[in-house]
Amino acid sequence: MTQTLVRGRLLSFLRRPQAIDDTESYRYEEDGGLLVENGTIVAAGPYGAVRAEAAADADEIDHRPHLILPGLIDTHLHFPQMQVIGSYAANLLEWLNTYTFPEECRFVESEHAARIARHFYDEMIRHGTTTAVAYCSVHKASADAYFAEALKRGMRMVGGKVMMDRNAPQGLLDTPQMGYDETRAVIAEWHGKGRNHVAITPRFAITSTPAQMEMTAALAREFPDLHIQTHLSENHEEIRFTGELYPDAIDYTDIYAKYGLLGPKSLFGHCIHLSEREADAMSEAGAVAVHCPTSNLFLGSGLFPLKALSRREKPVRIGVATDIGGGTSYSMLKTMDEAYKIQQLLGERLNPFESFYHMTLGNAEALSLSDHIGTLEAGTDADFVVLDAAATPAMALKMEVTRSLTDELFLLQTMGDDRAVRETYVAGKAMKAVL
Ligand SMILES: [Zn+2]
């Protein structure tokens, strides 16, 4: 088997940085080498040492002076909303009803779903995102298109057919039985095929009847290892309406808990307005709050207390995500730029090491997939990204006076986007070059 030796400045995280000077939390190799074989990293470290380990005929690719990081991970977005992005709406519920639901209706057509899937994966690769967790539409055809394209590109992707049986147009509704049956069919056809992971995906409590929630509970019991994804506590009007629909629950989080959906593989989009009780319940269950900063600002939903939730006595696990099409950028760099600004407004600091931790290892940990992705450790998937902090004239000018790795990362996060992504490797293959 041919080996590939990739040379560049390697940066990867070992754990969450405690402070800006927590140099023990990451590994940085000024002249580093990554040895890849059969889609897997077989060695990582100083270039000289890795070169000595490599076969004499290994292909060599030199990415100096650029940074090489684990592939970026996006833990919440909507694959059928690529043509919803940038829609002018007052708030979440108006945005859903006016733009999002009508667009998602089109995914009943396999051809449309397949075409958008190709664009979707092109954007992931263009932005350095090697793993994402997506909602498909209610139609099984959308999940088929999503997973078929992931398989073709060899990417590790998580996704699910949305279950929703009320409060949406007829063309977007399943039934409790249909949602259950089709989710089972998607699991049977796609889970574990290539690098695909199927997630149980009730859209949110507003669009599922209690009968459908019973069916999601059954799926969660039958398939305890699968991810579960849904939305929680995004907007005050949504929270109020949800409370009316489930009058017996003590709060929004309690609805999901009652149906057995609150666990360590559960990803809850938004979680902006959680009460202390809800945050405790999330923490005790090991559930993940997924922060979607560009979406929260775009829809005016609120300021997610990322720092406050992570330093609680009972800390809440946190993921970060674009939430396309409520979100406004496919870039995880842009996403963390906005996350930084939200913390500023809350009087908190989010340092650049924390931001890059969140985009890589942090999100891998949020998905319980850090044995495979989010690191450059030997034995993990060879998914990595090459970043150039001087990618545009304005960035290059600023780089002239940038002296430290801290400043370089902060510049990448503040001014970077897809132009800063020089290459995206999936299972050891350079994907951007062939787009
Ligand atoms: Zn969402």
Structure characteristics:
435 residues, 9-stranded parallel sheet, 15 helices, 38% helix, 23% strand
In total, the number of strands is 16
**Helical residue percent?**
25-40%
Strand content: 15-25%
Count of DSSP H/I helices: 15
Rg of Cα set? 21 Å
Q: Structural class per helix/strand content?
A: alpha/beta
Task: Characterize the overall form.
Answer: globular
Biggest sheet character:
9 strands, parallel
Name the assembly state.
single chain
Uncertain segments of ≥5 residues (pLDDT<50)? none
User: What molecules are bound to this protein?
Assistant: zinc ion
Distance between the termini: 25 Å
Mean of residue pLDDT?
97
Written account of the structure:
This protein has helices at residues 47-53, 92-105, 110-126, 140-153, 176-190, 210-222, 236-245, 252-258, 276-285, 293-298, 306-310, 332-345, 352-366, 393-399, 405-415, and strands spanning 3-13, 26-37, 40-46, 59-70, 72-78, 129-135, 157-160, 162-163, 196-202, 227-232, 266-270, 288-291, 317-320, 384-387, 421-426, 429-430. The two termini are 25 Å apart. The chain is α/β, with parallel strands linked by helices and 435 residues long. The model has no long low-confidence stretch (mean pLDDT 97). Strands 5, 6, 7, 8, 9, 10, 11, 12 and 13 form a 9-stranded parallel β-sheet that branches. The protein has a 7-stranded mixed β-sheet with strand order 3-2-1-4-14-15-16.
